[in-house]
User: Which sequence fits this backbone?
């Protein structure tokens, strides 16, 4: 689970339809690996 604090940065994904997109999963994994 990702811990959200005052130092947490937000990244948005926009699109339609987005329900079936794997983009949030891929971006979360990449950003976690880089942290």
Assistant:
């Amino acid at each position: 689970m990702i811990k959200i604090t005052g130092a947490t940065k937000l990244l948005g994904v926009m699109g339609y339809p987005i329900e079936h997109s794997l983009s949030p999963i891929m971006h979360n994994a990449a950003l976690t690996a880089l942290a």
The mean pLDDT is 84. The helical segments are 23-34. DSSP finds one helix and no strands in the chain.
